[in-house]
Amino acid sequence: MGKSKVPYIAMLLLAVAIGAMLLYLIPHRYRLNQTTTYKESGRELTNPLTGYAPEAYSIKECEDSRLVYIGLTWAMWEPSPGKYDTEALEEYFHIDRWKREGKHAVLRFLCDVPGEEEHMDIPQWLYEETGDGAFYDTGYGQGYSPNYDNEYLIERHRMAIEALAQYLGQDDFVAYVELGSLGHWGEWHTNTDEGVAPLPSPEICWDYVLAYSDHFHHARLLMRRNFVMAAEGAMGLYNDMVGDRESTEEWLGWIEDGGSFATAGDPLEYQTMTSFWQSAPCGGEFTSRYPLEELLGERLDATLSMIRESHMTFIGPKCPEGELKDSQAAKLLEGELGYRYYISELSTHYSFSQGRLEVGMTWQNSGLAPLYFDWPVTMYVYDSHGNLEYWETVEINLSELYPGKEIQTMTHIPFTQEFQKGFRIGIGITDPDEEECIELAMDAPLQDGVQIIYTKD
């Protein structure tokens, strides 16, 4: 009985030996167990959802941007009760054109924009129904400050925002909504030093916030200051004084230390939001205190520092325009904004037992902020002749890849005989509709939405 087992044992040992030999020879013969490291390229990128956001009504200024800014007054949006002028909105801000060109919008709804002449930014019919606000002529300019406590105005505001969200929520064109509505320029403050009434009580302010959060479900929301509503709603923040060191430091101080803001009722509390930028965007525009030429010239280092400290994703509508936007300084500042994803390491390992190649990647972000939308990432595998043979989703949430963090991914390739002759690995990052793509900060050209980052001959 014992001797009859010998051939089987020998065969088993032979099979094990052959398996071990194949396990060694295949990956070594075809050099399948490899690790490649990469450096961030540092080259200029023009990726979506970040950068300058010039005024959407200016075709010339928006031609080269990926974002546009829509500052919509209530008077334009609702010229008569319940009649929302979508045609005027589309025509004035060239919305159809920007959609065709794959741009996204920053939206701010405005009730009071100081100007050079006496005017109102709420509809005439609303003024006639309320009439309890006040015209002003201050150092900010001239305008009309509504009575934000008025119950009829609050209800009509809710209806106007709901209609705006329904109209603009049909697609993902509007990416960022800055909660305006209250105060001069929608910045949640009034010139009380010159007699303009203060903001309403926190309870009333909540009504204005809920009008946005209840109806804008896809765009990311931002507030001018880190009020408790912003913290509880996990919102982003925007600073309209970028380049003004004193104002920006005050703004950053509120974010770091909290505090409170005087209203017509109880103080409106600030809540610390030191790391808000890891999950929600930072936007805003350049200050009007200094000429843009000065911000891009002798104040460039200080301006750059403020952008970095704030982890900004976009700047607009006040941003470099005309010849200034083509200057080296303007491009330097824009290149700092938002995300810059790249793969710092790619490793391949052959699994003999499963007949597949394991592809591990280390993802990093050399920018100031993450992408705040989880666009799908796909790995493409081509044979030695350039034919696409396989593709697989890479399991990664780009919204969680903020600066200073690494994310490791593992994707598997069925290793066919064709791949023994050589293969290439490409990465494609697109929006869910596969109409826009993101370029990695790597020395690999983007072709048809894919960058070839690894070649095995």
Automatic annotation (TrEMBL):
Protein keywords: Membrane, Transmembrane, Transmembrane helix
Domain DUF4832: 256-435
Tagged with keyword Membrane: yes
Pfam families documented for this protein: DUF4832
Membrane spanning stretches: 6-26
Ligase is among the record's keywords: no
Name of this chain's protein: DUF4832 domain-containing protein
